[in-house]
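Summary for the steering committee. The consortium agreed at its last meeting that each partner would contribute one worked example illustrating the joint modelling workflow. Our contribution is presented below. We chose a case with several input lines so that the handling of multiple components could be demonstrated. No manual editing was applied between input and output; the record is shown as generated.
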Amino acid sequence: MNMKYDNNVKLMKGNEALAEAAIRAEIDGYFGYPITPQSEILEYLSKNFNEEDGVVLQAESEIAAINMVYGAAGSGKRVMTSTSSPGMSLMLEGISYITAAQLPCLLVNVSRGGPGLGTIQPSQADYFQSTKGGGHGDYRLIVLAPNSVQEMADFVFDAIYLAEKYRNPALILSDGTLGQMMEKVRLPEKGSLPKSIPEWAAKGKIKNKERNIIYTSAVDPTVMENLNKELQNKYALLQQEVRYELSQIEDAEILIVAFGLSARICSKAQEMANDNGLSVGLLRPITLYPFPSDTIYKLAQKVQAILVVELSAGQMVEDVKLVVNGSCPVFFHGRMGGEVPTPDEIFFELKKITDKQAVKN
Amino acid sequence: MDKIHEIVFAGFGGQGILSMGKILAYAGLEEGYEVCWLPSYGPEMRGGTANCSVIISSRKILSPISTKYDCGILLNQPSMDKFESKIKSCGICIYEKAEIIKVTEREDINILGLSAFEEAQKMEVKQVANMIVLGALINNINIVKIESVLKALEDVLPARHHHLIPLNKKALLKGMELAEKEFIH
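What follows is the complete predicted structure of the assembly.
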């Protein structure tokens, strides 16, 4: 993808930057239902989306919204929805259908503390839901995790590009803080993401051509198994799209693995640690699915220990442990329910690990 | 040398806490700094306490979440109680005298009590109290120029309120003047 950027630097909220990026990515439709901390996306689009370019609609519920996305995506349109954690749970049935129908669309979860109605403060406790399927059946979403307002805008383009390339929904998994905070951003320009009506789109009967039918059920289990095989082949191919960011991993003794907001907080803790004579590297998965397994495995052979930091009780840490497979100790630090750790808190954890490792050696 | 300022603004909803932070952030943008403005967006903003933090930095901002702040602008008692311990040693605490009975007892920070609300009433527009406080802040930290703050007002205030800019300017200057004389230590 050839991204062109606006020269103007703006100060914007993450949610607003994402919404403006969606307009510039030339979406044909947005269907959503308000929920804190992401309501600015619907608000921004209601105000700024040109009605001649498509539809922005507040549905009667998240369930309705995701099914509108399903229908519109089936007709070959570039469409999206956004919500926050409890709303995402409501959408899962529809998302499972969309993956089975192999339709591209953009999903956004500006997540908040759960479970239940929970809080409206930031959380990463929807990691399992986002990366392991969530709804029923053997499916996966393409999951991108931004860590700045700039990436909230950029990943709209990346996610739509990948969704259309693989005919699979792509999810931007953000959190309340990234949605609400303002940072400098340079917005991608319109036209960076060409679009066309795909040949599989259900657009009615055309002369001399069979009509396209999109469905997700089969009476015969062989048919269903074949669809599953097709999906699995696609997910195998998708692994090539893995993205991550490394920082100061040369000679690192401890490796932090963290994504999104946690990775930002950890990068400050990393700086504090390295200023104090520790040797800390950081790996930030940018795609949570596909997961940067190979890189984590390789680094696990070199470092003394890994620290995983999440705004949850520990979800991604299970994937890290699976990959590391005992090569080195894996520690975890997490906060839950909308609480966020300070850089100091992570620095303290790093010191504890260094002390433990020193005793062991 | 790297210049980084982490500032927290806290008080009642309605005291202009979020706008104060926003105006400072835009002033930082105006001068080419990296900036990050993080509001409390919880039930607080529907009444009760509100706060926001602003980071202005000459290099990339790593964490939007701060451990401690260089400056605390504390405009009510719950904010004073919550944030006084989160101000860095040698940092600055600016508070509203009319709201705060129990002032921090810390001796390692600079404390400035303002009667911003009373001064605003003298100007017959109590809404500009936050600009008096912001003026006092700008006078005490070496980050942004008053000209940038005035420019920022144009960005933050909707056009229909632009006629109020001269009044806000007056309040900012008043705050700068007050900050010259009212330090405790």
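Chain B has six helices and six strands. The CA atoms of residues 154 and 160 of chain B lie 11 Å apart.
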